[in-house]
Structure formats: C-alpha cells, structure tokens
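hi!! sorry for the late reply, been swamped w classes. u asked for the two structures so here they r. pasted raw, havent cleaned anything up. first the sequence of the first protein and right below it the tokens
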Amino acid sequence: MIKSHIKLDSKSELNQKLKGHVFHVTPTQNMPLIEKSKAVLPNINGERDSLFGNTVYGFFRLRGCVSLFDYRNYGSEEWEAHAHKCAPTLLLRQTDSISILFLSENEYPKLESWMKWKEEEQWSQRVVPHVEIGYPGSLLFECFTEHLVVEQVSG
C-alpha cells in the first residue's frame, strides 16, 4: 500500500485528490488498531462512536456495512446537492490528522448503493445520497491501495 502525507491548505486541494475514488476516513490515531485487526470493521452494535455524527440510525451501519465516501461522481449536480452534508475534513475539527484509505477498484462490485435506502423507503435511517456508499461486512486492510495522512495547516 502506498502511504503519503499532506498538510491541507484548502478543502478544494484535498477534493482534487479524492475525486473519482471511494475511500474510508478515520482519525489517524485509529490506524494502529485497524492495522492490528487487518480490517476496518462495521460498527454493527454501535460500540464505536462516529466522529461524523450520531449514526445510531445509520443506514449502512444497520446493514452491517462499513460506510465509505463515494467521490466517483464528484462534481455532478446530484453529488453537489448532498456533498455539503458530510465532508471527509469534518474530522479535522476534532483531531490533528485524518487517515484516508482508498478502496481498490477491484472491490467496487461489492459496494452497496444508497439507492437501497430509497427503494426500501427507509426514511428513518440516515444516509447521504450520492456521497455515501457501503461495503458489506469487514473491509480487509489489503483491499485498500493507498493511505493518505492529512493534517490541517493552522493559522
């Protein structure tokens, strides 16, 4: 896996690196645990707090999936309409650095679309249409191609 590090000057700078990809975001302090378990685990029982907000009623969490960001349609009208609801940089308000793990394209066929939320009319469950996507079950560390550590430039 390729590992790189950037100091973030602007969100648009990061978005250019993210567009076209599916990825998981976590505080960098979580990486030793992920590396030890060799997987990103779904938060099935709500045991791990999400710094992205209250996910008690998260659509993908309730399905036993790992939630990922889907930036493959970055910039489309539909994507733009929802992207502001949850940004990968949100965690930088609460932690010094974030780790972005890019999913291998070989894993894309396994992804579950947010469209199931709409088809099943699961209106009481939370999802970010066009931006959030789920991976069923544990997501093995070997399924990621790149680990990008991002720090916010202060001042």
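now the second protein. again sequence first, tokens right under
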Amino acid sequence: MDRDRGILNPRKVRLLLAPVLVVLGLLASDASAGTIGNAYFHHGFHQDGSSAENAMGDMLAGQLGADTIRIHAYWDLYQTGPAEYNNGYLGGIVSRVVNARNSSGNQSLKVLVNFDLPLSEVGWMQKAGYSLLTTKSTYENPEHPGIRRYYPSSGAGEEAYGHAMAKALKYLHDAGVSDFIETPNEPNLTHGPSDAVPAAWLGQMAGDAVSWAAVENLQMNNNSGPAILIGSVSAGQQGTEFYGFSTAAEYFGTLQWWTDYTIEQWWANVPNGPSYAVTLMGTWRPSFHAYPKNGGNEETPCQRLPSGDLQDQRGDKTGKDAYSTVQNAVIPMLNLITRSKKWWITETGMTSYKTSFAGAETWADCVKRRENGGNTYGKTQQAEFYGEFVYLQNWQFLHSGYPWNRFEGAIFFLPQDVNISGRQFAGYGVHWPGAAPNCGLPYPCRKPAAYKFEQYY
C-alpha cells in the first residue's frame, strides 16, 4: 500500500532534530521492574460517564489504591486547526486527575488516555487534506450498527493524528498526570460500539505517533514509560472477514507490522536513524481487551434468553473460569509480539451478577438481586476473578518468562455500577449504589471485589 504520506515538512523537522536527540540519549535506561502495591503491574479502572459519575468513580478508584484511570479523549477536541491545539482541553484532564488525587488521598493516581477519533466529519480536517473516512462507506454492510467514527486515510492526516497524540502525551506527562496514551478504542470490531478502523491505516497513525513523540523530546522508555499503547484490540472479534481478517490475532499482526514499518521509514535517512528506529520499535506497548464469556445478551434487564436462562446463569460463572477465558483470549496475540515489547490489557472485568441458581427466578427477584449488586455467590465469584488475576499474573511474571514477564498493566471495567441495566457489562463495577449497612450515602456500597482489589492490588 504505497500512498502519499505527506512527509516533506515533517521529514525536514526530524532530519534536523534527530542528531540532537541521539546525542541527548533519548531513551531512558531499562531499569528492573518493581512491585506496585502487591501487584507487579499497573492497575486501575476504565471510567467514563457523566461528570458526577466520573468524580465519584475516580475517587473510589483512588481510595482502593488504583494507580491508573483510563478515560476517552478525542483528537478533534484537542487539535482545532492544522497547527492549532487546545491545551485547555488537556488542562481539564489534568484538573480531573488532581481532583481525584485530592478527593481520594491517593497522590500516585495517573490517567491513561484513549485518544480516539472524531465522531463526525470535521470540516477543517477535510479541507486540510486529511481525507476522513468511516467504515460505513467501505464495509460491505453499510447498515451495520455503531457510532460513526472517522479515520484519516491520507498520509498528511495520519501524520497529523500521530503528531497530536504525541503532543498530548507530552503535555500530560510534563504535567505529571500521565505516562501512557493509547490508540483508538477497539478498532477491529465491525459490530462494536464505534466503527472499525483498517489495521494498515491505524498502524501508520501509530507509527507516526511514536516517531513524533521522539521529536517532541519525550524520553521514550521501554520499561517504565512514557510510552504509547497501540492496539486496544478486542480479543472477542472472531469469524468475520473485515478487510480479510478472521481473528483478532490476524488484525493485530498486521497492525504491528505497519506500526514498525512506519517507524522504520521515518528514520531511514537520518544519521544513526535505522538503529534508532529499531530501539523505538521496542518502546511501544501492544494493548488488548478480553472479557469472560457472558452467556448471551438480554434486550432488557432480566429478560430471559431463548434457552430460558438469564445471561447471569450462563457463560463463565466462576472467577477461575473467567480468568482462564481472558488469558486464553490474549495468548494468540501475545505470540505475535516482536522485540520483547511490554503489553497491557486495557479492558477486562467480571460481573457480580452471576448466579448458581438454576431455577425459574422471577423477574422481580432478578431485579432485586441486581439492585443489591448481585447475590452472595455472584459477588464472591467476582472477587475471586480479581484474586485469580493478580495471583496468576504475578506468578507468571516471576516464573513463566516472556511474554508474561513483560505484562505491564490491567484496566478493569468501571469502579462502580451506575445502573442495573447495562446489559452485557452490567454489574462489572466493584461498588454498587445504595445505603446498605456499613456503606451509607453518598458513597456506594463496596462489593467483595473492592476489598480484594484494595488488599491485593
């Protein structure tokens, strides 16, 4: 795929800066990994919602000892013109982290920004030649559900995304609130919450981001960060022929190749550039999403599936099985990682709504059980998932070698339940709203998983 990459001016910039960067020793040393709490990896929660939900969730995550909250930010809200950037937008993220630190008393809390794409065509980007496209116009089923999401299909647009991503990471890193930023969410899902993004295009955007981060004088580090997470690939995508990929692993393999190839091309004609490019290729982190088997999707809360069961009565009903599903889902992608890169799972979790009750639970009883955050069985199994996760990931980090000893972070889905519906991901929070004994308002009630997180993470 040989396309115009719009490299004239950026290439001049990197030619001028590269010798200086090499002399300055851009890459920090690879220090040995240490423990973070009881876990050998970063740990936290994905948290996106209303302002009030975010403030509560951020505080709860901090109180549990999380060191990371993962949030969405959008390219077009940060970059407002060809060479114009809204630092006030990033300042809002800085304020959010500072507020979370102050409200929770956890000063180690930082943010992982998922730097997503515009949800609509942006006029100035089109005029600038970014050639924004959505898979609605290229996928064979133009009526597939999902939120429109527009990716740049020209070299100039891909490089602009990468430059904006690098500048955003530098701003947040310099402010002391972030060490990592991540490429668009779940780009391989053809029937996901947002339109898919072709692997080759995303790889070029990501490679541009890594190279621009070097030009921006970020001390790219292959051990502790700052670094760019690339992928956000959902392991649940199977059996589709989107752009010729039938598995998530095939998508990730192509994405990785294009990312590293783009980095290689960036530095090909720079003094010491080829060897420097190889070093840069080892600094970015693959990131994946993996969830347990949920047993089916209900159209409304507590609706029975065609089998006669609730999804709560199917799928992975134990924490042990849930962890095994998550681990097995990422293994095919881990086997493809090159250059001993560190890697993340940036979305995972387990619901507390699972139940071992096989009888005909009434609709009213189901609603009541979910309003209480699940029954004793479900809450216990969710806690066991957290326990299995930290124990086995730590064990593998210490004893299994590569790639398990390069695991760097886990982000669990939501610190709190915001409603009882949510369907597929209902009950994933480790708190639930209410005024049960020992957890009066305005603070949500803790589930056993919250205590497990606080104790072991």
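hope this helps!! also noticed smth abt the second:
The first strand starts at residue 42 and ends at 46.
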